[in-house]
Structure formats: structure tokens, C-alpha cells
Amino acid sequence: MVLEKPLRSFFMFLAKNKMLNKAAKKWGLKFGAAQVVAGQTIDAAMNNVLKLNEQGLHCTLDHLGEFVFDKEEALASTEACIHVLRAIHESQAKCNLSLKMTQLGLDIDEAFCIDNMRRICAVAKQYNIFVRIDMEDYSHCVQTLNILTILREEFDNVGTVIQAYLHRAEDDVKNLKGIPLRLVKGAYKESDEVAFQDKAVIDDNYMNIIRIHLDNGSYTAIASHDHNIIEKVKAYAEENNIPRTQFEFQMLYGFRTSLQKELVAEGYKVRVYVPFGTDWFGYFMRRLAERPQNIGFALRGFFSK
Questions:
Q1: 19 among the known binding-site residues?
Q2: How many other C-beta atoms can be found within 10 angstroms of the C-beta atom of residue 189?
Q3: Which of 8, 132, 182, 211 is catalytic?
Q4: Was 225 annotated as part of a binding site?
Q5: Is the pLDDT at 193 greater than 90, yes or no?
Q6: Which residues of 27-57 are buried (b: 16+ CB within 10 A; e: fewer)?
Q7: Beta-strand runs (E) in the chain
């Protein structure tokens, strides 16, 4: 269940508010954010990753940040991603890297962003670490897929995300046959011109693109906390002899931890998306917009101060 549209729109508006995002960097992890963001430093994040690994969970680390319009800041974000890769390698953690290209200068200059991505992918390749390019809002969709095509000519350790609420999702999945994809429902506010608005329709399309990617033999990450979707995927894989080595379930850090452990106990691979850093506000607001129960995080965090 998603929030009623006015409240969802409110949180999505806050997520893009530059003044609040800037202020949040000075606040520390407030309003319950510490429950869903694994710290502000790489040391804190890696400590949490290793604890999750001990429970049989794989991880993907995301140094939070997006919508960067300064080259120096984008270069600093690039170095931060490389630092994360080194930390994963040195700790031998079962962990990938997730990133947003707007953090690496996509809105400044595409060629500049591609250069930054090449540096990151090269280090990741050296360490045998997979890099996931997070899909952002619709205005960056085509650009993201075009850059992925360029990078895949040089690197086989990079993939992206497809959002089921977009009308184009089915075609994109078919065009990306053979490329490891994370499939999600979608978390940004988009118009009905480009995205489905009805939850039932989105759910149907989500299962549709999951089946397509599994059927064509591609590695598939199903990123969902929806137990109905998870049960349908388990049943479909069983009925169609799809090996468990071809897919994994992904969930967010701090959400449905019992379900994560249950799936591991059943023999499924589960990867936890572990965000960290000082630029946490936009990420946290989108989590509040997605599910009504998430507001409890903020209220508990607010009243505990």
C-alpha cells in the first residue's frame, strides 16, 4: 500500500528540496534515519555489512548522494566509490557497489560522468566486484541505459535497474537480455504519460518483467518487500525449473529483517541494500513516501530526541 497521493507528493517534494538536503548533512542521522541508513562513514557501514554477512546475507553498499552540479563534488564522490570498493576488497565482504550517476556528474557533462564510471568499473573489475547503476527519475532513464551500453563494451561487471511502473519497462528488459538487472516497482513520482499509476497494474507488470528476464536466462535481482510478489517468484521458479543460482531477492537495510532471514534459511540468496553517508535526506524521504508504516521511523526518531 502506498501513501495517499497528497502525502506521498509531500515527501517526494521534500526529497528534492536542496535546502533541506544541505541542512540534513549537518544534522546527523535524525528522525529515525539511523534505522534505515547504516551510518555516516564507511567504517560504520562496513561494520554493519560484516554483521549481515555473518547472518548469511549478501550486501550492496551505496554511498548516498545524487543531483550533484559541481565537478569537484562529483570527483569526490567518484573517489568515495573507489574507497568503498577498496574497503569491500580488504574486508573480503560479500558485497557489491550501488551508485547513482547524478552523483558522479551526469547532470554536469555526460562524457565527464562516463570517465568517472570507467574509473570505478575498472577498480571493481580488478577486485571482482559488481557495480549496480541505480535508476533515477525518468528524465535520466534513456541517458542511463545509453551509458550502460557504452560501459558494457568494456566491462561485464556492471548492470542497472528497471522500474516496473514505467510504460517502457517490458521493452527495456527484453533489450537488456543477458545483463544482470535489479527489477523494482519504482520509487519516484512520475506522470501518467510515462508511468502506470495503479498499484495492481504496476504489480502485474512487475511480475511480467520478472518472468521475462528469468525466462531468457538472465541473472535477476527481485528487489521487493512484498511477500505476495516473493511467493509468486518462488513458485514460478519452481514450476519452470529456474535454478536458485539465477536469481536473488533484495531488500533495504532495516526493512523486513525477519523475512530476509527466513528466505536465507529456505536456501535463497538475499542481498541487502545498505546505504550510508551524510547525504541521507532524499533517500529517507523516498522511503517515507513509499509505505505508510515507514512514517513510524520518523515519529519514533523525532520524539526520542
A1: no
A2: 18
A3: 182
A4: yes
A5: yes
A6: eebebbbbbbbbbbebebbbebbeebbeeeb
A7: 58-63, 95-99, 131-133, 158-163, 181-184, 220-223, 247-252, 270-276
Fill in the DSSP letter of residue 195: B
CB 246, CB 219: distance < 8 Å: yes
pLDDT higher than threshold 50 for residue 297: no
134 labelled catalytic: yes
Catalytic residue among 107, 134, 203, 279: 134
Mean pLDDT of 21-41: 64
For the chain, the domains span 38-279
Place of cell 552523483: 103
Check residue 6 and report its DSSP letter.
H
Mean residue pLDDT of the chain comes to: 88
Rounded distance between C-alpha atoms, residue 21 and residue 281, angstroms = 6
For 38-279, CATH gives 3.20.20.220
Q: Residue 1: what pLDDT?
A: 40
Residue % of the chain over a pLDDT of 90? 74
Q: Is 185 annotated as a binding residue?
A: yes
174 is known to lie in a ligand binding site: no
Is 163 annotated among the ligand-binding residues? yes
DSSP 133: E
pLDDT attached to residue 187: 80
Q: Cell numbers at residue 276, please?
A: 550510508
For residue 304, what pLDDT band results from cuts at 50, 70 and 90? very low
Confidence at 29, pLDDT banded by 50, 70, 90: low
The stretch 242-257 carries a mean pLDDT of 95
Which residues, in sequence order, are CB contacts of 133 under 8 Å at separation 6+?
98, 99, 100, 101, 117, 144, 147, 148, 158, 159, 160, 161
What one-character-per-residue DSSP string does 69-105 give?
--HHHHHHHHHHHHHHHHHHHHHT-SEEEEE-GGGGT
Question: Counting every residue, how long is the chain?
Answer: 305
